[in-house]
Amino acid sequence: MKNFRKALITGGNGNLGRLVAQKLSAKGAELLCLDIHETEQDNEKFYKNIFLGDICDQDLVNRILKDQRPQAIFHLASLLSGSSEINIERSWQINTTASINLMQAAKVCDVDLFFFASTIATYGSKTVDPLPEDFMQWPENMYGVTKVAVERFGSYLKNTCGFDFRCLRFPMVLSPFAPLSAKTAYPSHACRSAVIGDPFNFPVSRDTGMSCMFLDDVIRSIFEISQVPQTSLKSHAYNLHGFHFTAQELCEILIQFYPNFEYSFEIDQYIDILVKGWPNEVISDSAVLDWNWKSEFFFEESISAMIKLLTHGQI
Ligand SMILES: NC(=O)c1ccc[n+]([C@@H]2O[C@H](COP(=O)([O-])OP(=O)(O)OC[C@H]3O[C@@H](n4cnc5c(N)ncnc54)[C@H](O)[C@@H]3O)[C@@H](O)[C@H]2O)c1
Fold it and tell me: Rounded to the nearest whole angstrom, what is the distance from the C-alpha of residue 79 to the centroid of ligand 1?
């Protein structure tokens, strides 16, 4: 494995974490997991050690880093947008304070590479389309606020002491593992309903859409950016984009696969306005230029891949 042999994945039992573990393990890395939720049996084999606990427990974090000496950290533990809005103090604690403390501890323990998963929610709702890379980041929800704060701290450490902070800002991730509680993940939930034969109610209007990426590209991007020499990475954070589609376009493609798929539109104003405020296209030229990023999944391929995973993957 280029760059590191042993890595810690925080949030290693989540939607993305379990697949990052699968990918890194297949490449020969020795992996540690820190998550507050238990590891599903299928995923245990990817980890040499699993630490069940709260990332806000600084003693636990320090102990893991001192005893285990990982050379890389993939920091994915986070409260997502809905939970962050419900409990803003807890969101700040987990997403910001714990992330900053983790970076400080990583610096002390000479961790070589620190990956952080950010989001286009750091841009707020008054965006333009396509979204330029240097657009101002003034998030409007707590999730975005916490993420932009971590980006700033990581960038500060990168500039002042060469800390190898690497960050990707993801758009909506189309994934069979999308938590059911994440209301903005309705495209992923609609695919699941179509596959299992349940009716689905879209919380947005027919013309609402957003920049999106398929899970496999997201996992590949995390792996690829971890393999690039530090000197090639000119930015502290890179925006990524896969494709765009509206709710109506999603219905039409799902009906082609499942002609009996029943759907309706019952607009939740909060979700509809939130998603409409996100860009449909995000410029990601720097990722292409600095580390040769190339999306492989577009709308049709992503829906087919989702259906395949949901049908055969016992998800
Ligand atoms: N999925 C998306 O659409 C998307 C988009 C942009 C960015 N991201 C970011 O990617 C990362 C992974 O997202 P995901 O979709 O896998 O989310 P997820 O909710 O499935 O995973 C997050 C993991 O963090 C763990 N966690 C939460 N609080 C914790 C705590 N206090 N201590 C230890 N672990 C804790 C959870 O148990 C969970 O396993 C997150 O940082 C998220 O903000 C995701």
Answer: 6
Closest residue to atom 18 of ligand 1, CA basis = 14
Q: Atom 41 (ligand 1): residue with closest C-alpha? A: 76
pLDDT digits (tens, 9 = 90+) for 23-36: 999 999 999 999 99
Prediction pTM value: 0.95
State which of 8, 9, 16, 34 you would mutate to test the pocket of ligand 1, scoring each by most atoms of that ligand within 8 A of its C-beta: 16
Number of C-beta neighbours around residue 102 at 10 A? 27
Pocket of ligand 1 (CB under 6 A): 11, 13-17, 34-37, 54-56, 76-80, 94, 117, 119, 170, 172-173, 179
Distance CA 164, CA 233 (A): 10
Cα–Cα distance between 218 and 201 in angstroms, integer? 27
Q: Please give the mean pLDDT across all residues of the chain.
A: 95
Confidence at 227, pLDDT banded by 50, 70, 90: very high
pLDDT at 315: 55
Q: Where are the beta strands (DSSP E) in 171-284?
A: 172-174, 200-202, 209-214, 237-239, 243-246, 263-265
Q: Are 236 and 168 in contact (CB under 8 A)?
A: no
Domain 6-171+214-239: which CATH number of 3.90.1150.10, 3.30.200.20, 2.60.40.10, 3.40.50.720: 3.40.50.720
Atom of ligand 1 nearest to the CA of 94: 31
| pLDDT tens digits for range 154-168 | 999 999 999 999 999
Amino acid identity for residue 281 in this structure: E
**Rounded mean pLDDT of 161-185?**
92
Say how many Å lie between the CA of residue 250 and the centre of ligand 1. 25
Ligand 1: distance of its center to the CA of 20 in Å?
12
As a whole number of angstroms, the distance between CA 286 and CA 292 comes to 9
Going from N- to C-terminal start, the domains of the chain cover 6-171+214-239, 174-211+242-280+296-312
pLDDT-derived band at 306, boundaries 50, 70, 90? very high
Ligand 1 midpoint to CA 258 (Å): 31
